[in-house]
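To assess whether the prediction recovers the assembly geometry, we first specified each molecular entity separately, as shown.
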Amino acid sequence: MKMRLLGISSLTAALMATAVTVSAQEELHIYNWSDYIAEDTITNFEKVSGIKVTYDVYDSNEVLEAKLLAGRSGYDLAFPTARPFADRLIRAKLYQPYDKSKLSNYGNLDKVILKSLSDIDPGNQYLIPYMWGTTGLAYNVDKVKAILGDDMPLDSWQLVFNPEITKKLVACGVALMDDPIEVFVAARAYLGKPTDDFSKPAIQEAANVIAGVRDNIRYFHSSQTINDMANGDICVAHGYSGDMLQAQARAAEADNGVHVEYIVPSEGAVVWTDVAVIPVDAPNPAAAHKFINYLMQPEVIAPISNYVAYANANAKATPLVDAEVRNNPGIYPPAATQEKLVVLKTPSDKEARNMSRMWTRAKTGK
Amino acid sequence: MLKRYPLLFALLFLGYAFLYLPIFSLIIYSFNESRLVTVWGGFSTKWYGELINNGPLLDAAWLSIKIAALNASIAVVLGTLAALTLVRLRGIRGHKSLGVMVTAPLVMPEIIIGLSLLLLFVAMEDLIGWPAGRGQTTILLAHVTFSMAYVTVIVQSRLAHMDTSIEEAALDLGARPVKVFFAITLPMIAPALAAGWLLAFTLSMDDLVIASFVSGPGSTTLPMVVYSSVRLGVSPQINALATIIIAVVSTAVLIAGVTMYRKELKAQRKS
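The predicted structure of the complete assembly is given in tokenized form:
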């Protein structure tokens, strides 16, 4: 028995030793979503720069936020969603400003996107836009056309908010996101009302729209829709462009006869941006600058867009992106639609409380 | 038997189906040609091929196994010591509060353990410079903290039902307490130790919440990779990895079961 205990403790010591790796090489610690970068980006960067990169993943913006708030996270670069996450942490002074003299490729970035971030980041000091997308609608082309006829305009919020139309689609299945802000803003766009008005009467108007179609909505969920759309279990789903395009790709790959189309409703839809930030206590901000500058090269970021199927924020890279991705209106919306895209204003605490109350009431009918 | 209790057997069958059908469907779909988790697209082993080339996923799996094994070993030692104290040293001061404190992690929500440990580690780093940054060590510490509680409960119940007269006899015959512990007590509670080790291993292996909070650069565990890939699509590679883990675990359990069974047969024959 003594021998065995000795065995265990020496095994313990051996494993401990492998856990500690000492290295004099320059290191960069990136914190991002899994698969949110091309397969060879990191290795290519390591070759060019000689910096050793560690790529860690998180499963929600909230986890990232908690770690940055606690301090000393050890990460040099993270990729939060601009609103509300990066917005909140800029105000909490948890990011450090970029030194633009080290970013020779900064001019490649899309000026429109930079400007859209300037209300939460005046002077674009803290945020470098990475990828962006929209929140719109996916629909099962064949089934929806069979029910509504060919003349019905499909690039409209009417598919989920018009009681008459949703009634026809009940059997087929309509799903909304379980996210009060996204749905309220979409409902306000459907009504043709300003989408940045979060006052009580404004939200009440939006809540009435949802209450009006509640009985025709199969469920409220933000990610279950990917598989259900791909399998043809539901006909219309409200969701992030990336999720809905994933459903489209999966259905095509499974070759199950389901044709999913993603559209950005013409009444206007929410646009979101993921940004790169350097935490204020990053151990190696210089390496982070080098990596960001590397990412801003059009020939580096374009393959990433091809891989993740999101639009990047690099104006010069667009011609280099695969035609299949570049010409997909769900990923790169046409100019007319782009003008109608709206950014999500971060609600105040009071407005957020009111919204979640109204949301529960609208969903449950109580 | 089967004829006498048909209802009982139907229920037994349903129970097993409930427990094992999901695992079987996971294994079957790891050989699915299609990327869709719920649509069968033909037989293929391509996900196993892709898994071999998926460095980050394999690294994360290896890290999880490493942490789980270390955690289980440490938790068994500490948990056994705690259980011995709780059962054998009833007279000491603070006995009751020790019992409550040791088992508190059983009922504490994971998110509270995770966040409080994160804050503790950050504060410690500021004060004494250790642990420097968070990573594998802090995940291990956090896992031992809650796994130990489970081991303690298991070993405690075994110790409580143990016949102490054998130990007393050994002491009477002149054995030193240390000798008694290793020669008598430990073999008698060995099944509880094995159960505790396996439970601690499993708890560590599938913990997401606590690990998410206390991990640092370069220490992404398997559950973190799996949950993170939800955003851009879970691939059947994860089914493939799970299938391999299930295969390894069931082989190990089978071998352990057969050896134990044979030992028991031998022991019975001797007596």
